[in-house]
Design goal:
Beta Polymerase, domain 2, 415 residues, single chain, 7% strand
Amino acid sequence: MPSLEKIIFQHLLSAGGEPFITGGTVRDKLLGIPVRDTDVVVFGMDENMLRRELEHFDQVLKYGKSFRVFQVKGLAVEFSLPRMGDDQQKLSLWEMMKRDAEGRDFTVNALYMNPLSEEIKDPLEGLQDLEMRRLRMASNHTFEDDPLRVLRAVQLSARMGFSVEEKTMKGMRRVSLHSVANERIYEELNKWLLSFNPAKGWELLGKTGHTPEMCQTNKAFYTVIYEVLTCAASLRNQSANPVQWMWGVLLSVCMLSEHQQSPETDQREIRSRVIRQYAELSNHHDHTRFITEISWGIKNFQLYAERKADVLRLSLGVNLDELMLTITALAPFWSYIGRDSEVHQAMYRIKKWRPQEKIKPLVKGTDLKKWGFEQGKTMGVLLETAFQMQLEGVTEKQMEAYFKKYHKVLQNGGH
C-alpha cells in the first residue's frame, strides 16, 4: 500500500503540479545519512493551488513570512514553492528548477529527486561537489541573499567534513552578519558546536573573519582553541547539557586566552563583557546562568582547591561534574601555558574533598529562635554565619555553644 507521502505526490501530479524532493533531504539521502524531515518544492502551482490540494489530506499548517512553507498536519514533509517570481508559466520545468537552485545556498543542497522514480535532477552540478565533499555557492549572490549562509557553511563543514571552494570562501569573507537576527545566528552556532568536528568550523570562522565577537582573541591562541574544541568534542556526551557545556568550554578558553595575552586586564572585566555578549546572543536565561557558573568555576577552581572548606564553597557555586569536565577539556590550554601540574593537583583535591550530596544547612531559623534570637534583619546574617562555620567543619553543638555564649553581641549585629 502506498505511503501517505506518495499518495500526496501522485495527487499533486494529477492536479498539474511537479513535486520534487530537494535541499538537505536529497543531500543526506545520497550520503547515506538518516533523513528525519522531507523538503519538497512544487513547480507549476501558486500558493493558493498548493494549499487547496494539500487540504484534501488534513489541516494544512503554514510557516514563514517572506518564504511560505506548508505542512499537512502530522506529516514530516514540508512543501514550498520555487524560489523565483510568478512567471512559472513562461518557463520550462528545467528553467524553473535552475532558477530555484540558484536561489538556494550551496550546490549540494540544490539537487532534486523525483519522489516517485527517485531520478536525480542536477541543474548546478551539485552531484560532483557532493562526491568531492565540497561546498560551492549556488550563485554569485548566495551570501548577499542571506548572510546567515556563512554560518551554515561553517556548521556543514564541521558536521559533514565539507571543504569550501575558494570563490565561495571569498564570498563568505565579503559579507557582514550585522543584519542577521541573533536567534538565527545562535541556532547555527549551536549546530556547529554539536557537530562531529567543531575545530574544523573554528578554523573556517577564523579564515573568513566571522569568529563571534565574544570569542575573538589573539591569533597566537587560535591553534590552542582548535585543540581544546577537538578535546571537548570527545567529552561532550558526558555533559548533561552538551550545547551549553560546549559554549562554556569555548568561552572559558577564550577568556583565559585574552587574560593570558593581556594580564593587566582585570579578569572580572573580561568575564563580565563576554557573559553580557553571550546573553545578548542567546537571549536565554538558563543558558546564560550555566555559562556564568562555569566561567566563575574556571576562574576560581584553583583558589578554591586549597582547603576542604573551600571545595565545599566551590560546589555551591557550580555543578562540579560539569566544571571538572570543562577543566579536562581545557587540557591543551593548561599545557600551552605550562600549568598542567598545578591544575592536576587542584583537580585531585576537588575530587577528594567534593561533597557526595547537596550540602544542607545544619542550623535553621527555628534553631536560632530556640537559642534566644529574635526575628529581624540580623537573622539572615546569623544563618549565613552558621553556614560558613558548618563549611569549616564546626558541628551543630559547637555552633549552639558559640551562639549562646555571644548571644548579646550577635543579636546586636556585632555592635
